[in-house]
Design goal:
Number of strands: 6
Shape: globular
Strand content: 5-15%
Strand order of the largest sheet: 1-2
Helix content: 55-70%
Structural class: mainly alpha
Number of helices: 13
Distance between the termini: 39 Å
Order of helices and strands: HHHEEHEHHEHHHHHEEHH
Radius of gyration: 26 Å
C-alpha cells in the first residue's frame, strides 16, 4: 500500500520524481581539497595571489629595466638617505597597481565583491579625512614633546612662498601612494584571506563562536610582526623603530576591525608620514625626503631623541601609540559594517 502511494505521488509530481531518480551527486575528494564551505580554500587563494603578484612584479621589473635603466652604482653618501619624488611615485605606484589588479582577479575567481578586501564601506571619505586629521595631530604631539624636552632642535625654514604649497601637495600625494600600497598589501586581500582560513581552522578545532575574532587577530599579529621586521634592513633603523612599526601595524588592524575598511588607516598613515618627512623635516625610519619645509636635528641619546631613525625611534612614540589606540576605541565604534571575513558568499554557488 505504501509503495503504491509513493509511486502515485511520484507520477503526479515531476519535480519530486526527477529528484528521486537523480539524487544529488556527492562531492568528490578533489573538490573537497580545493573548495570549502565559503568557496576556494584560503590556502589555495593565498598561493594563487602570491604567484600572480610575483609574476606581475617580475614582468614590471623587466619592462622598467628596459625603459629606465638603473643608474651606475657609486659609493654610499649622505645623500643616499634622501628619498626623491620620482622614486616615491614610481617605486610605490607600480606595486600598488599590481596589488589592485591581482586583488580584482582574485575577487572574480572567488566570486566576492572587491570591496570586502578593505577599500569598501559607505564612509570612505569620512574615515579617510578623519584619519588624515588624527595622523598629523598625533605626529605633531610627538614632535612637540621632543622639541620641548630639548631632544629635537629646529634649525631653519627651507621653503617659502609657492614652494610650500607645491612641494607640500606633491609630497602629500606621494605619501598617499605609500599608505595605499602598505595598507592594501599587508592589510588587504592577504589579511582577509588568512583570517578566513584561520577562522575556519579555529571553528573546526575548538568549536568556538569567536573563531572570526581569533582568526583576525592571529593574522593581524603575524602580518604586524612581518611588517616590523621588514624595516630591519633599512639603514639607521633602531630596535624602538622596529617595535613601533610593528605596533603601528597592529593599531591599523584595530581600525580595520572597528570600521570594516582601511580608509581611516590610509588617511592616518598618509599624514603621519607627510608630517614627519615634509612638514617637520625629520627622518622617517632613517630616511629623509628632498624639499621639506623645516630643517631639524636630534639631540641626546637616540633612545630618547630617536637619533638617525627619527621620532619613531624615540621611546616617546610608545606613549603616542597608546593615545592612538584610545582615539580609535572612542571615535570608531564597531558597527554592522565592521570587519567580518567569515560571512558566507551571498547568492553565489561554486560549480563542481
Amino acid at each position: 500500500m505504501n509503495t503504491q502511494t509513493e509511486d502515485l505521488a511520484l507520477h503526479n509530481n515531476p519535480v519530486l520524481a526527477s529528484s528521486h531518480q537523480n539524487p544529488p551527486p556527492q562531492s568528490s575528494t578533489l573538490r573537497k581539497i580545493f573548495i570549502g564551505k565559503d568557496g576556494l580554500r584560503a590556502g589555495w587563494s593565498l598561493l594563487i595571489f602570491i604567484a600572480l603578484f610575483a609574476a606581475l612584479m617580475a614582468a614590471a621589473g623587466v619592462v622598467s629595466h628596459k625603459l629606465l635603466p638603473p643608474a651606475p652604482k657609486t659609493a654610499v653618501t649622505v645623500t643616499d638617505r634622501y628619498i626623491s619624488l620620482r622614486s616615491t611615485f614610481l617605486d610605490r605606484s607600480v606595486p600598488f597597481l599590481g596589488i589592485l589588479l591581482v586583488t580584482w582577479i582574485m575577487s572574480k575567481i572567488e566570486r566576492r565583491p572587491n570591496a570586502v578586501y578593505g577599500l569598501g564601506g559607505s564612509r570612505k571619505l569620512s574615515h579617510f579625512f578623519t584619519g588624515l586629521a588624527w595622523g598629523v595631530t598625533c605626529l605633531s604631539l610627538l614632535v612637540f614633546a621632543l622639541w620641548k624636552t630639548g631632544l629635537l632642535v629646529i634649525d631653519s625654514r627651507l621653503l617659502f612662498g609657492s614652494d610650500v604649497i607645491r612641494y607640500g601637495t606633491v609630497w602629500l600625494l606621494g605619501f598617499l601612494i605609500v599608505a595605499l600600497l602598505e595598507e592594501y598589501l599587508t592589510r588587504g586581500y592577504l589579511l582577509y584571506t588568512l583570517t578566513r582560513g584561520l577562522a575556519g581552522f579555529y571553528k573546526w578545532a575548538f568549536k568556538t563562536c569567536h573563531s572570526a575574532a581569533l582568526g583576525f587577530w592571529t593574522a593581524a599579529l603575524l602580518f604586524s610582526v612581518l611588517f616590523g621586521l621588514s624595516h630591519k634592513g633599512i639603514p639607521d633603523e633602531s630596535p624602538i623603530g622596529l617595535l613601533s612599526a610593528g605596533l603601528a601595524s597592529m593599531i591599523f588592524c584595530l581600525s580595520l576591525w572597528r570600521t570594516g575598511s582601511l580608509w581611516w588607516a590610509i588617511g592616518f598613515h598618509t599624514s603621519w608620514d607627510w608630517a614627519q618627512s615634509f612638514l617637520y623635516g625629520v627622518a622617517d625610519s632613517g630616511s629623509m625626503v628632498k624639499f621639506h619645509l623645516l630643517a631639524t636635528h636630534p639631540v641626546g641619546k637616540p633612545i630618547l631623541s630617536g637619533g638617525a631613525t627619527g621620532p619613531e625611534g624615540s621611546i616617546f612614540v610608545l606613549a603616542i601609540l597608546c593615545l592612538i589606540v584610545l582615539i580609535i576605541l572612542f571615535t570608531l565604534p564597531r558597527t554592522n559594517q565592521s570587519y567580518s571575513p567569515t560571512l558566507p558568499l551571498q547568492q553565489v554557488s561554486i560549480e563542481a
